[in-house]
Amino acid sequence: MWNLPHGPLHADMYAYTMALAHFRKGDHDTPTTYHAFVRKNPFGGSYTLVAGIHDFLRWLRDFRFTDYRTDYLASLKTMKGNRLFDDAFLKMVAETPLSLTIDALPEGELTFPNVPFARVSGPQWQCLIVEATLLNLINAQSLVATEASRCVHAAEGTPVIDGSLRRSMDVGGYASARAAYIGGFSGTSNVAVARALGLPARGTFAHAYVTFHKEEETAFRNYAETMDDVVMLLDTYDTLTAARLATRICKEIGKPLLGVRLDSGDLGWLSLEVRRILDEAGFRDTYVMASNDLNPRTIASLRAQQKAGEAAIDRWMVGTDIGAPHEGGALGGVYKLAEVAGRPVIKVAERGVSAADTKTTIPGPYGVVRMLRDKDGRERIAGDTLLSLDTLGRVTGWGGTDKLTGPDNGRFQLTSDLVSVNLADPERPTKFRTGQLCYVPHRRMMTRGDIVYEMPSLDEIQAFARTGLDRLDPAHRRLDQPHIYVAGLDEGLYEMRRRMIRDIHLSHQ
User: Where is the Nicotinate phosphoribosyltransferase N-terminal domain (predicted)?
Assistant: First the structure.
């Protein structure tokens, strides 16, 4: 796994200063609940694919204030030169066991704006300390997993391989390679991650192998003679000449040419010409791989060319766009307080350019029920509704996340009608009627500091993600102007939020 050796020191400084202020006032152990969620989906898309929660749980296993960690905190000074953290505070954090309870979306599940990918409950000071690592791990991997799923969707069943290590923004490329596999990639060029996670390791050779030799023919011949799997990079000097050379050498030494890779130029036209050369030489089973700054849109464009008979690409290697997705920037997952000692709380932001364009939160601990419907003989997800945990239990017969099992926590039928209000368009609510098929996507991950979730294998997570993505209506998966998937608020939760906003505004006039 990603190595985070410093345990609870992986935190923002404000978490510790707030924890200290709470401790000195004696309310640091107050029970609180936080929600982690995205305000908007990345890449202008309609969904976010969740990844990273398992690494967060593994990090929590090392949530211990060892001597060197508390010694470092003890060494910190205020601007006046005084010790920032006193012995009483350090003794408290060192001797208090972790007691958080966490419900979260399993890796490979889909999330949408305001739908919590994690709900964290426990003592206020501990909820504060875990925020940064939770967001760091899940934001990074969910962003990459989402982009990978878009690449796979654009590739329409042809394999996509991760080649992001050299461009990855995380040290070692662990998060990029792992999340790309969850998103549907078929292998990685990252040898260390392939070993650590049991992923297929994939790679050919680079231009340096050709330029090392005095002539391209010598390079190709040496490689073909020494390797079982012969895959040639063709574009070091002249792509079509190299294609003819590769086929001739493989014929002469009696070895199959497994594949060729194109890394520059007009990939569509070159692939078609290379395919013709391969076929004429009898290498009809040789695959053609494309690389060179690919992303979902370039892959989709090349696939469109292929359907028109203007390209012939069988595989894809995506590097920069997975290591540092430029269109998405960063996933803006946030972590907001929802309840203090049973009292719902809300953050009210300044008004944005529209009624829905604010950072105002949703008060109280809430969950989500995900609706299912049959469309054209296929099961689709048909909208989410956020609702208080009490209401969730009432309308589904749901007994709590710690009672649920199975890939979708089982199916339910609504036991009463449910009205869902879209915050962006509250005047047109959606009514889900009694008997509507649905499920609850959250799982219990940790109970009072003990990890209770049995983490599936990476292959199982990838399969689970594929199933969830297949449930999305194709309109939600469009690369350009996708149809928006709505996560509305149950009318009771909507009214409570509206009243709290109104009361706060009135009290501050």
Answer: 9-139
